[in-house]
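so my prof wants the structure for this chain in the tokens format not the other one, which i didnt know existed until like an hour ago. anyway here's the sequence
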Amino acid sequence: MSTTSSTPEQLRRRREAAGRLEPMPCGHQDPLDCQAEACRETGPVVTEPADEASVFDPSDIVQLWADARSLYLTGEFPRYASPGWMALHPDDPRRLAAALAAAELWRKYGDEEALLAWFREASRARPSIADRRIRAELDQAAKPKPPHQLRATPGWPPIAIPGQPGRYLYARQEKAA
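here's what i got, hopefully its the right format
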């Protein structure tokens, strides 16, 4: 699923959100609908800020859920359990939107602290393989090896002797008795 919505999908969501708003003085609910001169002349409506407790009606759970869902989709909420989230009124839909976002992150990624601990462990510097071997093993590995003795194999062509141009090793042919 794509993280970005198409333009018709964004327009549909905007219209749905505008349907939940109070109409403007010109009668339109969406500011994009206000294209006529008469709409522009009325100007923005300035209202007195209402008492915070009266803005949110906790008994209207459907409206709270719809507001929280639209806030969740737009991302306009503080992080769950942050100081900004704690400062919100208990019935503020942004609190629910932040809880929804935190629950979704938990569903996808699990415990955040455990995930961070896993990242720390995965990126921790590891000791080299040489550090894990005992001194006797390292001494044994450092000893020079005896030179390899070349032997020609019967049925194969002769082997050129390294460092001696023009000299070859031939397989011995044993004669039957």
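also thought this was worth mentioning. The first helix runs from residue 7 to 19.
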